[in-house]
């Protein structure tokens, strides 16, 4: 046997498992715990600190993450082979943990260099967008945008022209929820402040016709929101030529901008995680939660999503809901997902993904408890449907799927003008027209994927405080909002990540 000082990360005194900060060999004697590892424990995985009888809860974060499917001996590897999930009662205690938000005095509010639109909206980037009503117009939209892959030199203040296409828009119920969500998503992007102008391209005979899009949303056509159909324009070539002319006109508008200092209260921060590992809930997610709290103290707004990935931890949000209606709305969405997954032959514990499990996450409850940490400690002021526009400053929750691009698409449609994306396994996500920062949960992955990661928060595992890391991240958010390019922007990501939520039957 060998003696090792491999650090075990015990997150709460009441926990009966700890997380290995590095790989532990079988037979190793762990000090100062005087605990012998009975199995090889991969980095990020859990080890039993005490005897856990069969059917008794596994405790991490001082919360139940699952139940032992057999007696678990101290020093044993605790993972999918000896843990099961079943429902148990949680105390939702709506609004019980509400506390006053300590707002920073107006004179001391942080600032960033933003772009002020004529109607007063604040942008962090300056794009022209080509959107589509239906998959049938996707190729034409891409052809139009490709004409401007290199922005002409006379438009130095424009970040780019991007076509955001999708696979839907027809073969769907004209009065169903699926069409409603798609229309709200397109409309949300069309009025997003990071677009100086938008051209919407349709085919002309689809379910989601432009006239229906305008009727179904508050969207209106204007100098900066324009539309055309391929059928009415005379076919592919004629539409591309007409689209080129429209984009040139909007580039003139877009170029007439400059950045000026504006309060951080104008930031709307999307909170996302993907490719998570066991360190996500220990390092990057809590640091992002701290940055979110700092933004809210500065009068800003953040959006947490991924309803299936707060499952089992929703009580930590309801307890700080602003009022009974906010708390009940969140629980209604959770129950909707229980029914939705059941009707489609699934279950909520289909998550975590195989990659999550390789990284040490065992159950949806464990993943959710770590994911909720992105939301910090601020009061939950509102709960939004997918792609619904943010109405209240502060901490918001949006009902989105857990699939990263679909979730972020909904947040951006709702008004997010910057995104922070935590990852432990490594993600290469980008998101035009909104900058997306990638936050590494551990130093090993950060070093191996430096070209994709914007900040290393694995330093928390090495001794940096969550408070210091959160402040460091908050400053990076401000500089990014001011125009500093993210790694995904440098690599050109963001054209293919627009993914509206497809809900309902395809007919």
SSE inventory with pairings:
Blueprint: E1 3-4, E2 8-9, E3 17-20, E4 29-30, E5 35-36, E6 46-48, E7 57-60, E8 63-68, E9 77-78, E10 83-84, E11 111-116, E12 122-123, E13 127-132, H1 138-146, E14 160-164, H2 177-190, E15 195-202, H3 210-216, E16 225-229, H4 230-233, H5 236-255, E17 259-263, E18 268-273, H6 284-297, E19 301-304, H7 315-318, H8 324-343, H9 354-358, H10 364-372, E20 380-384, E21 394-398, H11 404-413, E22 418-423, E23 436-440, H12 443-448, E24 455-456, H13 466-481, H14 487-491
Parallel strand pairs: 1-4, 13-14, 13-15, 15-16, 18-19, 18-22, 19-21, 20-21, 22-23, 23-24
Antiparallel strand pairs: 2-3, 3-6, 4-5, 6-9, 7-8, 8-10, 11-12, 11-17
Helix pairs in contact: 1-5, 2-11, 6-13
Number of domains: 3
Instruction: Give the strand tally.
Output: 24
- Strand fraction equals 15-25%
Strand order of the largest sheet: 20-21-19-18-22-23-24
Q: Briefly note the structural class of the backbone.
A: alpha/beta
Contiguous runs where pLDDT drops below 50 for at least 5 residues: none
The major pleated sheet works out as: 7 strands, parallel
Figure out the total of helices.
Answer: 14
- The residue fraction in helices comes out at 25-40%
Q: Could you tell me the mean pLDDT?
A: 95
Question: Rounded to an integer, what's the Rg over CA atoms?
Answer: 24 Å
**Gap between N and C termini:** 63 Å
Shape: globular
